[in-house]
Amino acid sequence: MTPVLAIDTSAGKCGIAVFISEKLNSYSILDKERGQAKQIHSMIDSVCSSLDISLKEIKSVVVTEGPGSFTGLRLGFSLAKSISFALNIPVITVPVFEALFAEQDNLKDVFNIASAIKASSTEMYFAVEKDFRECNSNKIEVISISDLDKKLVDFSINFLISDINTTLPGIVIKNSVSPHPLQVVKCGLKSGKVFTGEEIDLLSPNYIKPFLIKERKNVK
To answer: Core-most of 26, 47, 153, 169, by most CB within 10 Å?
Structure first.
């Protein structure tokens, strides 16, 4: 296979991977939200160097499309598009929930799985694995954080992937909403949306909900 680069900056972690085959791949994960923009280029160089290839040899870029951090998603898309334009290669997008659920693929016959990602101080993105698999992003809801426990009961959820703690008994909780970058690659190659040429100009993250950008007031 030809080298594929994956970028995930959708949440608190920054993940980079280069995938050539199951036996030949490498990745780097920065476990902090601040400073991603300053370090992501050196992370890409480091991962490429570990496989003894150059960035110019990358043949496509996979990027998580959201939902997630507004700033993080913009960073990931900006970088993916700039690499795409420079190397004239396609961009492949992958929903965050798809990659998160794929990581638990071996558990889907044992657990009812859901994911809840913080959207704001009062809201979160919520999806149930079985419904998402059938309808993809059409089954992502924006719910109030206070409604999470009720949602989990309504859908008989017993495995939750989330960055918000819940105290409901009988639920296994995985406190991470950053998919592994190698999983992002695999989802992209399997079922990602491929964009080429002029399509990439109009490509933007799937924020799910609109973000309000506050204007800074001039201080005199």
So the answer is: 47
Would strands 113-118 and 159-162 be described as parallel, antiparallel, or unpaired? parallel
Q: What's the one-letter identity of residue 203?
A: L
Rounded Cα distance between 45 and 50, Å, is: 9
Report yes or no on 111 lying in a domain.
yes
Task: Please report whether residue 80 resides in a domain.
Answer: yes
**Residue 141 backbone dihedrals phi, psi, to 5 degrees:** -110, 150
Amino acid present at 37 = A
220 within a domain of the structure (yes/no): no
Cα angle 13, 80, 139; round to 5:
65
Cα 98 from Cα 180, distance rounded (Å): 12
**pTM of the predicted structure, to 2 decimals:** 0.90
Are 9 and 35 found together in one domain? yes
Which of 25, 68, 31 has its CA nearest to residue 47?
25
What is the arithmetic mean of pLDDT over 121-149?
Answer: 86
Q: What is the pLDDT of residues 159-184, one digit of tens each?
A: 999 988 777 788 999 988 899 999 99
Quick: pLDDT tens for 65-107. Answer: 999 999 999 999 999 999 999 999 999 999 999 999 999 999 9
**Host H or E run for residue 153:** helix 148-154
